[in-house]
């Protein structure tokens, strides 16, 4: 199979990977049953067509970069350069399941620190601003990245296959979980009941509200799947707006000007 044929196939899969869950989520929550789900909307403002076009346009560029990264990971794996193993019996079935947990926690750590890096004042305007143009994000914002940000995220995924042994099946399950978590996190609706969010076990899980707050306030809640690093590094939003050092900008991009672009 030639490079162009292989790359085209990978890109087609990546487009499905992005559009299918995004369209299904958007159709259910923003169109078909909009009134039913409205009480769970985190920010009452709904996105306009211009925002959707911007998010999808940015995502298409990111999909191209992620497709190239996926091709590189495939080539590294079939040539034996990575830790990906194809014989499921090479490691125990217990490890087969445990490798999912390893990847989730490793990716959460890499994402947190890469995210903090992209929020540095001298980095943010050139790398991460594209993603933050959506103060009230939609499912299509899950991959709405500037090309440089897409490269950074791609590197974190590539790094994983060189440090953690994983079977292709579990690799696919992990990335499906990753996308669904990001679609839900950017969906704009809090689907996790309050009594579940406050439970001692689930309170460490990141929520749509947490990430939505990150899009509103920019300076907190940097985690991906969990709030462990945010809690440890004291970057978790406490919900005390009056005591925050910056204002809670919910409907404008003023914070970008005030904090990052001066």
Q: What is the helix content?
A: 55-70%
- Element string (H = helix, E = strand): HHHHHHHHHHHH
Average of the residue pLDDT scores: 88
Question: Structural class of the helix and strand makeup?
Answer: mainly alpha
Question: Low-confidence segments, ≥5 residues, pLDDT <50?
Answer: 240-262
Kindly estimate the percentage of residues that lie in beta strands according to DSSP.
under 5%
The largest sheet is: none
Number of domains: 1
- The oligomeric status of these chains comes to single chain
Spatial extent as radius of gyration: 19 Å
User: Could you tell me how far the N terminus lies from the C terminus, measured between alpha carbons in angstroms?
Assistant: 50 Å
- The coarse silhouette is globular
Compute the number of helices.
12
Strands, count:
0
3D architecture notes:
The chain is mainly α and 262 residues long. It has one domain (3-201). It is 61% helix and 0% strand. Helix 3 (49-78) runs parallel beside helix 7. The longest helix has 30 residues, at 3-32. Mean pLDDT is 88; it is low at 240-262.
Question: How are the SSEs ordered, and which strands pair?
Answer:
Layout: H1 3-32, H2 34-37, H3 49-78, H4 93-118, H5 124-127, H6 129-132, H7 147-163, H8 168-185, H9 194-197, H10 208-217, H11 228-232, H12 254-260
Helix pairs in contact: 1-3, 1-8, 3-7, 4-7, 4-8
């Amino acid at each position: 199979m030639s490079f162009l044929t292989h790359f085209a196939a990978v890109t087609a899969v990546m487009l499905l990977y992005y559009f299918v869950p995004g369209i299904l989520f958007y159709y259910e929550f923003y169109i078909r049953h909009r009134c039913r789900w409205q009480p769970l909307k985190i920010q009452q403002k709904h996105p306009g067509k211009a925002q959707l076009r911007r998010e999808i346009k940015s995502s298409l560029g990111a999909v191209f970069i992620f497709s190239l990264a996926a091709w590189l990971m495939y080539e590294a794996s079939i040539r034996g350069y990575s830790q990906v193993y194809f014989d499921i019996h090479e490691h125990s079935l217990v490890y087969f399941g445990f490798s999912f947990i390893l990847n989730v926690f490793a990716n959460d750590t890499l994402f947190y620190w890469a995210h903090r890096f992209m929020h540095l004042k001298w980095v943010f305007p050139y790398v991460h601003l594209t993603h933050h143009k959506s103060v009230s994000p939609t499912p299509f914002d899950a991959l709405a990245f500037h090309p440089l940000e897409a490269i950074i995220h791609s590197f974190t995924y590539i790094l994983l296959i060189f440090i953690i042994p994983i079977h292709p099946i579990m690799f696919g399950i992990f990335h499906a979980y990753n996308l669904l978590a990001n679609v839900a996190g950017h969906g704009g609706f809090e689907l996790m009941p309050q009594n579940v969010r406050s439970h001692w076990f689930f309170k460490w899980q990141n929520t749509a509200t947490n990430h939505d707050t990150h899009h509103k306030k920019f300076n907190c809640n940097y985690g991906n799947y969990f709030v462990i690093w945010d809690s440890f590094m004291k970057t978790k939003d406490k919900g005390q707006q009056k005591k925050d050092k910056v204002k809670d900008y919910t409907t404008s991009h003023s914070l970008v000007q005030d904090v990052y672009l001066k």
